Amino acid sequence: MSTVQFVETFLRKVASPGLVPAPAPSAEHWQSLFTLYIIAAVVVAGTVFGLFFYFLIRYRRRPGTPDPTDAPRVGVMAERGNPALAAILTALLVALFFGLTLNTFALNAYLQNPPNDPNALYIDVFGFQWGWRFVYPNGHESIGQMRVPVQNLTCGPTVTGCWSGTVILNITSLDVFHSFGIPDFKIKRDAIPGRINQAWFVSDQIGTYSIRCYELCGTGHAQMTADLLVIGSTSFNTWYVGG
Ligand SMILES: [Cu+2]
Predict the structure, then answer these.
(1) CB within 8 Å of 207: residues ≥ 6 apart
(2) Domain 121-242 coded CATH 3.40.50.720
(3) What is the distance in A from the centroid of ligand 1 to the CA of 172?
(4) Residues lining ligand 1 (ion), CB within 5 A?
(5) What is the mean pLDDT of residues 216-231?
(6) Could you give the CA distance from residue 60 to residue 78 in angstroms, rounded to a whole number?
(7) Domain spans, the chain
(8) Sign of the C-alpha dihedral, residues 80, 81, 87, 89?
(9) Are 144 and 98 spatial neighbours (Cβ–Cβ below 8 Å)?
(10) Ligand 1 centroid to 28 CA: how many Å?
């Protein structure tokens, strides 16, 4: 069990099951790493502040007590402490930081690069003042509503003519800078004129999720929302084919 999986399980069972509510596996991984950082930060801060206050009280100056013999003196190199312990703690910290960094790079690569899935649904996303337009491969267009099929595990790479549930978005803007965000899926990408940014997800839960703009883009910015409808593969296909 990896650290991320451990934290995920811990949160589900013990701490707060609501903390990992993601409707997409990629968002769960995102949340797990985020939570791992939070836990690391709390542990480090707790240790540092705990020791700080402990030493503050334990070694406070008392009237009539002479300075300890190993007290630091101006102009004299200190010879104190435990070099072996210092080396071990340093190695532990380096290992912790390397672990977090490698985890983060690996997860980032996974989240940033759409999977090579022949049954993925590609949608062109256009931000404009003020709304979102979604264009499907067969020419279907809708404004303010993005329909996608839910994850379908029977639709593997060797099966053809089905929707696997992988959704790959090509995001751009028709006017000013926008930012396309689906908070429940931990997705946020700049929508910039003349440039295409990709995002992807697979949703394993049917439902309605909110999409909104995260870049102040004019007076209608706050109303620049859309709905993401994750529906069953069959109903998606009926809509897709029928229009
Ligand atoms: Cu906008």
Answers:
(1) 23, 230
(2) no
(3) 11
(4) 178, 213, 217, 224
(5) 94
(6) 20
(7) 3-63+81-112, 121-242
(8) negative
(9) no
(10) 26
C-alpha span between 228 and 145 (Å, rounded): 6
What single-letter amino acid sits at 169? L
**Mutual orientation of helices 83-112 and 25-58 as an angle, nearest 10°?**
160
92-143 pLDDT tens trace: 989 988 988 888 898 888 888 898 889 999 999 999 999 999 999 999 999 9
Residue 150 reports pLDDT greater than 90: yes
Whole-number Å distance, alpha carbon 123 to ligand 1 midpoint, is: 18
Decide: pTM greater than 0.85: no
Residue 134, both tokens: 């979604």
CA of 11 to the centre of ligand 1 (A): 35
Contact 207, 23 (CB under 8 A): yes
CB within 8 Å of 123: residues ≥ 6 apart: 134, 135, 136, 146, 148, 167, 168, 169, 170
Question: How many angstroms does the Cα of residue 206 sit away from the middle of ligand 1?
Answer: 27
- Taking the centre of ligand 1 as the mean of its atom positions, its distance from the CA of residue 221, in whole angstroms, is 5
